[in-house]
Amino acid sequence: MSKNYLVLVLLLTGLLSTSPGSAQCQSGRVKLQMLGTRGPELWDGQASTGYLLWLDDRARVVIDAGPGTVQNFEHSGARYEDLDLFLFSHFHIDHSADFPAYVKGGFFTDRKRDLVLIGPSGNDYLPSTDQFLLRFFGKDTGVYPYMSSFIDPDAGSSYKILPKTVASSYKLLDEHEVYAHRGIRVKAVSVHHAVLPALGYRVELAGCVISFTGDMSGRFHTMPDLARGSDILVAHNAIPEDETGAGQLLHMKPGYIGKLAADAGVKKLLLTHLMKRSAGRKEENLALIRKHYKGEILFPRDLDVFRP
């Protein structure tokens, strides 16, 4: 049997795929749950940004930890002991403020394994991932130095929080594999969020691919390749098409979201991080997205669960 014929047979039977995540995705093993679907505004009872990935009925990855997400983590039935890592798109308050609450709550669990924390580098406006941990828990400089044993390698504690800073800037636009362990693989890429270091993520688990844009304007055009063939793309719809000023430098317009999803060939698009200015114009935003993207589009709410 020739090699080309064998490849054709495998493609037709679904045992081989030309795109990441398709055919082999074991969707019954994977869940994406919303821990928070809004931005920083206080207006409709939903938490700020945060997501939870489950594998084989265990909570494994938290992506962002905005205000209110730790309560939804509890409501989800997830266990802190099961988590492998936190991924931070950036360190704005609405994406990161609940992290110390996770750590404090986790103190009262039976966690023994180290916990990995991955996020971008810093600048004058936001801390790097290493600085983020030190400013919360540093023995001499932290807001909560009584928790310093979780980051001090010489102090006794049941586990350690291990930071990994991923360089992020307009000069560093290549994808990087930032984590590969226990059946989970993560790639990251720099995205444009005005002058703020920020990352988009691609998470691969059980043959499925779920990607997260984080907050970005799209000006680096790095997400289409990172999200290529994703079973689910979580995209932030914080502004309407006619947004001007700082908003358009920080966030994607609906038309761009549609082009991104279409270019990447994603199977399902979840629109989150809604703010008043975008939530009040859902139908208009949907129409602009559908000009480019013909797949399934949903507006999740907190604690909603999706299968890839």
Please characterize this protein's 3D structure.
- This protein is an alpha/beta fold and 308 residues long.
- The chain has helices spanning 3-13, 69-76, 93-96, 99-106, 129-137, 223-226, 246-250, 254-264, 276-279, 282-290, and strands spanning 30-36, 50-55, 58-65, 85-87, 115-120, 161-166, 176-181, 184-190, 199-205, 208-212, 232-236, 268-272, 296-298, 305-306.
- The chain has a seven-stranded mixed β-sheet with strand order 6-5-4-3-2-1-14. A seven-stranded mixed β-sheet has the order 7-8-9-10-11-12-13, with no helix packed on it.
- α6 links the parallel β10 and β11.
- α8 (254-264) packs parallel to α10 (282-290).
- It is globular and about 55 Å long.
- It starts with a helix and ends with a strand.
- Mean pLDDT is 93; it is low at 3-22.
